Amino acid sequence: MSDTSTPGSQTLSRGIRLLEIIAASDRPPTIAELAGALEVHRSVAYRLLLTLESHGLAFRDASGRVALGAGLAALAAGVSRDLQQAALPELNAVANELGMTCLLAVQLDHEEAVTLISASPRQTVAVVSYRPGHRHPITRGGPGKAILLSLPAEAWPDDVDEQLRAEIDLSRRRGYALSHDEVVPSLWSVAVPLTLPGQPPASIAVIHVSLPHEEESIAERLKAAGERISRAYGA
Length: 235
Fold this sequence. Notes:
Radius of gyration: 19 Å
Organism: Arthrobacter woluwensis
GO molecular function: DNA binding; DNA-binding transcription factor activity
CATH architecture of the largest domain: 2-Layer Sandwich
Domain IclR-ED: 64-235
GO biological process, one term: negative regulation of DNA-templated transcription
Number of strands: 8
Domain HTH iclR-type: 9-70
Shape: globular
């Protein structure tokens, strides 16, 4: 398919995509790696990076690898501010009570979910870091599958097969989604759907290297947190 976008819109799209690639990388990428991921010449990736650096949205370390800049924190502070204020105290409470990282994810588009807020427990032997902005297919992992629980089947991605449909049906009956070794190797996740007015379909989830509590009790704790978030948000 030919690219019918204007040069300006294409540049903007590439710049946004560059930020997404950096955010999703396990380690800061090089300019050459960014160019490869964007499928553009290295000089194009370099010019895009210079623009992002000038706005504080990206920076290069001493080795030349690229990381997200502090300017993004100022932008992120305004994203769903009311929801963040309502959710963060509950996420912290769940994380510290269960000893598991707790997060709130929202549907990003038809096929992906993104972590909006996360909280790590203060005192635990193993802490799983799951930073805001992490994206993954909505059909994989507890947070994404919990979002599917709140959606009609016709709103699901086209690649939902019969096995996943059966899993979602089971999750609906028990009231929560469960996953292991799907988005991040070896990690477990328990998640429940969260519906708030004026917000995309969402979920609350915990992730950890194991399940230190019965999955049913974890789900009940998440549901209670969801109810408190809804009240604090004014739902």
